[in-house]
Amino acid sequence: MVKVGPSILNADFAHLAEEIGKVKNADFIHVDVMDGHYVPNLSMGVPVVKALRKVTDLPIEVHLMVSNPDRFIKPFAEAGANGAIFHVETVANPLQTIKLMQVNDLVKGISANARVDIEKLFPFLADVDLAQVMTVEAGFGGQAFNVNAVYKIQQLARYLKEKKIACDVEVDGGIDLETGLRCLKAGANVLVAGTTVFASANPAEAVEQLKALKP
Ligand code: DX5
Ligand code: ZN
């Protein structure tokens, strides 16, 4: 089954509670955390997750686009996040980061940015719940889908099948009905979409349409 998580990066920050209230049919809320160092942009942090926790029952996934994810895992878990995704090249010891997520009861996610080879994730797939393939270079919402990602999703899906590893495959960046379908066909099962959902006149319908895609 396809799971859809709206990214609030391009939602109206002055009315976040209302924005999230528009996508009650989503499977989770995706929160993009940027530190101005790993990526050249700043976004949201722990206080925002704490505030969102009070206004939604949906699972909250934090996408840690930061240089030192280990430092933030516990604070985000305490703020009410349900899952976290870190970028594989940001830590010296990915297994330690995964362990940290585990002790904090978080769904464990690992990401390959657009410029990162998908093979970099392979040694850690048996230990995570979710592998994210960035379909844009992390840092900004509203970018165009990078077609090279389709090949990376295929490689990842092939590897997971070969090794009989069950883990979700999430795509993030430039996802709409057309690119989302391409990713699902390549082997993804979780779609993150920002612009497609929150720039839509009817965000719930946009979520519904993405959820209804059939690979
Ligand atoms: C990009 C973020 C994405 C982004 C998605 O750095 O990780 O989650 O907000 O936004 P769209 O769907 O607009 O590309
Ligand atoms: Zn993201």
UniProtKB/TrEMBL annotation:
PROSITE patterns noted in UniProt: RIBUL_P_3_EPIMER_1
UniProt organism field: Candidatus Iainarchaeum sp
Binding of substrate, residues: 7, 63, 139-142, 172-174, 194-195
Protein name: Ribulose-phosphate 3-epimerase
Cofactor names: a divalent metal cation; Fe(2+); Zn(2+); Mn(2+)
Leader peptide range in chain numbering: none
Pathway: Carbohydrate degradation
CC terms in the record's Gene Ontology section: cytoplasm
Known EC number: 5.1.3.1
Keywords: Carbohydrate metabolism, Cobalt, Isomerase, Manganese, Metal-binding, Zinc
Active-site residues, Swiss-Prot/TrEMBL: 32, 172
Single GO biological process annotation from the record: pentose-phosphate shunt
UniProt-listed Pfam families: Ribul_P_3_epim (PF00834)
Similarity comment: family membership: Belongs to the ribulose-phosphate 3-epimerase family.
Residues noted as binding a divalent metal cation in the record, renumbered to the chain: 30, 32, 63, 172
Domain of life from the UniProt record: Archaea
EC main group: isomerase
Cofactor info, note text: Binds 1 divalent metal cation per subunit.
Reactions the enzyme catalyzes: D-ribulose 5-phosphate = D-xylulose 5-phosphate
